[in-house]
Specification:
Helix content: over 70%
Largest sheet: none
Low-confidence stretches: none
Shape: rod-shaped
Order of helices and strands: H
Keywords: Coiled coil
Structural class: mainly alpha
Radius of gyration: 47 Å
Number of helices: 1
Length: 111
């Protein structure tokens, strides 16, 4: 095989310009791809921050609701205990009333 003939200065310049143009074109394409990738990354990063912010707000709201529920449960338990004590007092009062009525009835029978 023989080597190709040497390039003339004109051919050499055209080949060099073509190579530079191709390199410039590739550079522009790569630069565009980089800019687009950065834009997508920035958009995804912003979206992630917004989601994290929403998550944190929901966590705070959950903690607040949980605290309120625990408070309501405590109030309910106290109310139930109070109601139980009141029922006992009512039962004792009714028992005392019944005994008094029986005693009064016995006294009325003897008089």
């Amino acid at each position: 095989m023989t080597d190709p003939p040497p390039l003339s200065p004109h051919q050499h310049r055209n080949a060099s310009n073509s190579s530079v143009a191709t390199t410039d074109n590739e550079y522009v394409k790569l630069k565009l791809a980089l800019v687009q990738t950065r834009a997508r990354t920035d958009s995804a990063r912003l979206q992630a921050r917004q989601m994290i912010s929403k998550r944190n707000a929901l966590k705070e709201e959950t903690v607040k609701i949980k605290s309120e529920c625990e408070e309501q449960v405590l109030i309910l338990e106290q109310t139930q205990e109070s109601n139980a004590r009141l029922r006992e007092q009512i039962e004792k009062a009714e028992e005392s009333r019944r005994r008094l009525l029986e005693q009064t009835a016995k006294e009325n029978v003897f008089t």
